[in-house]
Amino acid sequence: MWKFLMDKGQKSNIDALKEYVYDLIKMTTQKDAGQRRVKSNISWDELDMVIMSIVIEATALVLSGDLDGVKKEESDER
Asked: Which of 7, 8, 39 is nearest to 26 (CA)?
């Protein structure tokens, strides 16, 4: 039942993680709180969902084991 929370129990989605992080950056650097109906602005009502999505995707990245591969590559370069 809890297999999805064990190592190698998830598949990472790095593209989704990057998208959510860039959405968070955009939200925190836009000139308003998303109240204006400008197409490119993101409403601050979305903040909780964006943060939770980052947490979920980061957890999946760790559990997938893909992050271990990056760490190993960094240590090999040194």
From this structure: 39
